[in-house]
Amino acid sequence: MIRILxxxxxxxxxxxxxxxxxxxxxxxxxxxxxxxGAWVTAQIREGVIRNSAATT
Length: 56
What we know:
Blueprint: H1 2-14, H2 17-55
């Protein structure tokens, strides 16, 4: 396990700063997309339940 982490840190440090920025930004965007997607899903679910309850 430690060897894998050492290999990853070595490869990370070999990347250019611009590429490190792109990779880190990509992970950041992915995290934000997951959070916003979960929030939108919850809002849609609540709206559907509220509207179906109002019509019955």
